[in-house]
């Protein structure tokens, strides 16, 4: 039986055309990088914008507990980014807008985890999936197979709009203003690849919430936070959003500012676009540490920022996509597949009562419930994912959503089905109770795989979880619902700032040895959409953190006043007293006395900071022009392939398109809104770069510009092999001249 | 059968008196001393996931997993590519099967012999699971199984001479081409390695 040669062949025509084209472009760029024809910085940003990340040790070195080992990969000197070895395992981030998944997608994720990763799908704190230990050469096929089920990894990482998150209870929540799902969907796909979102100096995160008071959406800690809101106008209820900007965690968290108290639904997309344009135009591009939107707003002040955004909004060219989706708001609705029903009288399977109490939320729609499937540390095996896909098909038509607590929820479950569903989840190892409780710890990958990790967040989380689960029956009822969040470093991917009890990894020197520690962060608040941020209290050795957790929870259980929240308790107790409570835990025994302190959780190696590397969270700042020029190089390479295949017509038109692309990229240095029309591009190029002599080569003068003009005027008149070959050669020279011009412009700018 | 992505699982004897946690320092030790014919990279800990890939030793060409799928602990060898010099000469499916078995058995042997684990675990050489981790080139079909079987049968005959080898295509609940291999008599890893050589 003949087998298909490649996934590209097998899936040809089955992918959405734009996604297929994108993956094919990426495939070509991989080949060009292998040939050294793309700069490693440009390639790094290229792959980051497709969610292809580096991992720890990808500089080819690893501290083995004794010394640094060189990892001699077969790829030798070839890199996939600055100081990032080609063959080194990487991470693939997969965006899931508002966490919405179907069964087919879940099955595909399971397949990919087995074939390209370690058979584990990891849910992140932004509703994405991540697959670890993925080889870069597997990523195009991985992307194709995702695209075949409607998932794109485009703009999962890099200086772009990241995954748009949304409340997992949207559409079924008792307290929401309205279902934000269609709006999250619309904004996610409107901003994806939008020309106004390609020139950021840093990432941009967006979140939707159906209400102001709960913790699900976390709008206050996002660059763009939208909270559903309604108001009565002329007797009619109008939908809109509280529009927040400039929130963010990172090392120093900022609360978002209210840009507008009510943005009507038809203004959601254009106003968001206007925010992006201002950020692209005025945001910091050189200093990565100050390049998030929050810093721009801090510098300008919210009033001036608002003025700039509204000014930008006023000049935006009209786009029908702003409102087209409003005619089909119910297109994203989930529909129940079982009739509504009440929970029967029992008997129930063992463990069902406790699970029901913590993991089941009664929907607004009578007779239906949302079930939370707890994933320890956000991990689910491929086999479990398959089982879950089958379960969803049986009970709710094959739908699920990821959550920022790194779990998966199943909505529209008939309450009458809950015991049977629970039994099936238990059989799949997915019946753990304790959703959103102390045992349900949010944690970033940390030193397991992240280059920025300082201490083992996952190792600590696993240890704490094990202890809490073992003690669950004995935990005070007030303690059980507390939220614990752990980050491996100060960058707060684990969102420790908004936890009741938060930790982030730090390091301390004791004698001649480094010792892993965690800062204890108290005073955070996840409710009210990430209403408040905690502050560091004291740094404690990693191996004593379980004692910290025990003492804090015991103190709270013992001394809290009636219905006092943990945050209020912390404030009342005071940081000074809390610190003194934990002071004795800061002591680190001498190295010869107890070496366990000198290794981190789950890791026998002596602790070292030697494996930290340069983070790729932002990627390099690569300008739109650089991207455009790289794209033109790819196109002219494709033209050569077409010529070799005897496809002269396509080769000639592709070479011409490559020159237009390079010209357009240069124009964008001066003017961003370049139209695609070739006549327009050539005219703009002539006026801005030829007539001004900016494009003139110091030695060859205007020659290379004339290649573009001739190609534009000649069209496809002569399709002989020789003519096409000449056209391609001229395109190459034009592109080189465009690079040289760009470099000259950059040098002139540096001198100003 | 144009794929390199084979997996082979050898099960631990039921009497094995060992915790998953104990494999972590062993695998880290292997990285330090560069045991195995591999570029060994890292260790991943998935003990918190039920019936999952317990502890994973990540190498460039393969993963070595103390795997708990279906609640049966064993070593799962999962090949991803063939770049190590010891594998560059592989030309045929027979060579590849031999190589896969060699890698898996060698890892089992090293585990059995490791000072920390010595005497406490034994792998069952008479029960194995072979899988093609490549849905494109080795789909879970009768035709693909038949193609694999024509190479597998003679190969197994050399490993288990004179014994009746039960080879079964596992169809249910799996989406990858998976074969269960069993012989009646218990056999140890050392003997199999000798026969491979």
Can you tell me about this structure?
The complex is a heterodimer of chains A (752) and B (197). Chain A folds into five domains: 141 residues, 2-Layer Sandwich (Alpha-Beta Plaits); 161 residues, Sulfite Reductase Hemoprotein, domain 1 (2-Layer Sandwich), CATH 3.30.413; 76 residues, Alpha-Beta Plaits (2-Layer Sandwich); 147 residues, Sulfite Reductase Hemoprotein, domain 1 (2-Layer Sandwich), CATH 3.30.413; 128 residues, Four Helix Bundle (Hemerythrin (Met), subunit A) (Up-down Bundle), CATH 1.20.120.330. Chain A is built from 23 helices and 24 strands. Chain A has 752 residues and is of the alpha+beta class. Chain A has a five-stranded antiparallel β-sheet with strand order 1-6-9-8-17. A five-stranded antiparallel β-sheet of chain A has the order 7-18-19-16-15. Chain A has a five-stranded mixed β-sheet with strand order 10-11-12-13-14. Helices cover 38% and strands 17% of the residues of chain A. Chain B is built from four helices and eight strands. Chain B has an eight-stranded antiparallel β-sheet with strand order 2-3-4-5-1-6-8-7, with helices on one face. The mean pLDDT of chain B is 94. The chains are: A alpha+beta (752), B alpha+beta (197). Chains A and B meet through helix 4, strand 17, helix 12 and helix 14 of A and helix 1, strand 2 and helix 3 of B.
């Amino acid at each position: 039986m003949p087998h298909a040669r490649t996934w590209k062949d097998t899936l040809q025509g089955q992918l959405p055309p734009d996604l297929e084209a994108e993956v094919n472009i990426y495939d070509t760029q991989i080949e060009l990088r292998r040939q050294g024809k793309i700069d490693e910085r440009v390639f790094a940003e290229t792959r980051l914008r497709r969610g292809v990340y580096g991992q720890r040790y990808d500089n080819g070195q690893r501290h083995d507990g004794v010394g640094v080992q060189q990892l001699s990969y077969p790829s030798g000197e070839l890199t996939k980014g600055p100081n990032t070895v080609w063959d080194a395992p990487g991470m693939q981030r997969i965006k899931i807008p508002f966490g919405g998944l179907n069964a087919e997608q879940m099955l595909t994720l399971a397949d990919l985890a087995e074939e390209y990763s370690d058979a584990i799908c990891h849910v992140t704190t932004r509703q994405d999936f991540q697959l670890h230990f993925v080889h870069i050469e597997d990523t195009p096929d991985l992307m194709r197979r995702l695209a075949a089920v409607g998932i794109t990894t485009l703009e999962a990482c890099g200086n772009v709009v990241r995954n748009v998150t949304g409340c997992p209870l949207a559409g079924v929540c008792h307290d929401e203003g309205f279902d934000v799902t269609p709006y999250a969907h619309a904004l996610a796909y409107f901003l994806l690849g939008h020309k106004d979102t390609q020139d950021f100096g840093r990432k941009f995160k967006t979140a939707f919430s159906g209400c102001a008071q709960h913790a699900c959406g976390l709008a206050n800690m996002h660059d763009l936070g939208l909270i559903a809101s309604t108001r009565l106008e002329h007797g009619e209820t109008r939908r809109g959003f509280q529009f927040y900007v400039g929130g963010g965690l990172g090392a120093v968290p900022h609360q978002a500012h209210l840009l507008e108290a009510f943005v009507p639904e038809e203004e959601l997309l254009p106003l968001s676009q206007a925010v992006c344009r201002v950020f692209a135009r005025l945001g910091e591009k050189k200093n990565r540490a100050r390049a998030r939107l929050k810093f721009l707003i801090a510098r300008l002040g919210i009033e001036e920022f608002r003025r700039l955004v509204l000014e930008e909004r006023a000049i935006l060219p009209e786009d029908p996509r702003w409102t087209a989706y409003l005619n089909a708001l119910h297109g994203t609705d989930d529909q129940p597949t079982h009739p509504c029903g009440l929970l029967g009288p029992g008997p129930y399977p063992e463990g069902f009562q406790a699970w029901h109490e913590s993991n089941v939320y009664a929907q607004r729609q009578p007779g239906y419930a949302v079930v939370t499937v707890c994933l320890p540390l956000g991990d689910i095996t491929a086999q479990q994912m398959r089982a879950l896909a089958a379960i969803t098909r049986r009970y709710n038509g094959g739908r699920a959503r990821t959550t920022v607590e790194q779990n998966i929820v199943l909505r529209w479950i008939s309450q009458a089905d809950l015991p049977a569903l629970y039994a099936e989840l238990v059989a799949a190892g997915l019946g753990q109770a304790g959703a959103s409780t102390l045992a349900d710890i949010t944690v970033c990958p940390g030193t397991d795989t992240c280059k920025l990790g300082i201490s083992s967040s996952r190792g600590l989380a696993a240890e704490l979880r094990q202890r809490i689960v073992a003690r669950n029956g004995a935990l005070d009822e007030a303690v059980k619902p507390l939220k614990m969040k752990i980050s491996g470093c100060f960058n707060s991917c684990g969102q420790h700032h908004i936890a009741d009890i938060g930790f982030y990894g730090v390091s301390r020197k004791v004698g001649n040895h480094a010792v892993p520690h965690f800062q204890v962060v108290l005073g955070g608040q996840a409710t009210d959409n990430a209403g408040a941020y905690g502050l560091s209290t004291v740094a404690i050795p990693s191996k004593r953190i379980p004692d910290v957790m025990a003492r804090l929870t015991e103190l709270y259980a013992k001394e809290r006043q009636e219905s006092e929240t943990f945050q209020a308790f912390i404030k009342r107790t005071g940081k000074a007293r809390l610190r003194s409570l934990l002071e004795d835990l800061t002591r680190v025994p001498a190295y010869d006395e107890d070496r366990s302190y000198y290794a981190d959780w789950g890791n026998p190696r002596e602790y070292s900071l030697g494996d930290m590397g340069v983070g790729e969270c932002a990627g390099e700042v690569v300008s739109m022009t650089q991207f455009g020029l790289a794209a033109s190089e790819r196109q002219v390479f494709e033209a050569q392939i077409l010529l070799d295949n005897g496809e002269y017509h396509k080769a000639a038109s592709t070479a011409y398109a490559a020159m237009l692309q390079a010209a357009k990229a240069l124009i964008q240095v001066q003017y961003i809104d370049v139209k695609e029309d070739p006549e327009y591009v050539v005219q703009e190029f002539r006026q801005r770069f030829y007539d001004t002599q900016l494009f003139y080569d110091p030695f060859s003068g205007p020659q290379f510009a004339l290649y573009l003009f001739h190609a534009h005027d000649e069209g496809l008149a002569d399709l002989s092999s020789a003519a096409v070959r000449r056209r391609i050669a001229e395109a190459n020279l034009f592109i080189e001249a465009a690079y040289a011009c760009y470099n000259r412009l950059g040098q002139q700018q540096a001198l100003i | 059968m144009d794929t390199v992505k084979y997996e082979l699982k050898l099960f631990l004897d039921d009497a094995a008196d060992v915790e998953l946690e104990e494999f972590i320092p062993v695998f880290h030790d292997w990285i330090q001393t560069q045991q195995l014919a591999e570029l060994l990279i890292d260790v991943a800990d998935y003990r918190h996931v039920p019936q999952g890939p317990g502890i994973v030793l990540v190498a460039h060409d393969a993963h070595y997993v103390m795997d708990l799928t279906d609640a049966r602990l064993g070593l799962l060898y999962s090949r991803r590519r063939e770049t190590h010099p010891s594998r560059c000469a592989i030309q045929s499916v027979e060579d590849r099967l031999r190589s896969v078995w060699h890698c898996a058995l060698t890892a089992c042997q090293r585990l059995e012999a490791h000072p920390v684990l010595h005497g406490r675990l034994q792998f069952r050489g008479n029960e194995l699971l072979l899988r093609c981790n490549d849905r494109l080139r080795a789909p879970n079909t009768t035709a693909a199984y038949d193609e694999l079987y024509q190479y597998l049968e003679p190969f197994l005959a050399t490993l288990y001479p004179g014994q009746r080898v039960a080879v079964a295509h596992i169809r249910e609940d799996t989406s990858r081409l998976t074969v269960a291999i069993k012989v009646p008599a218990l056999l140890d890893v050392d003997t199999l390695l000798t026969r491979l050589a």
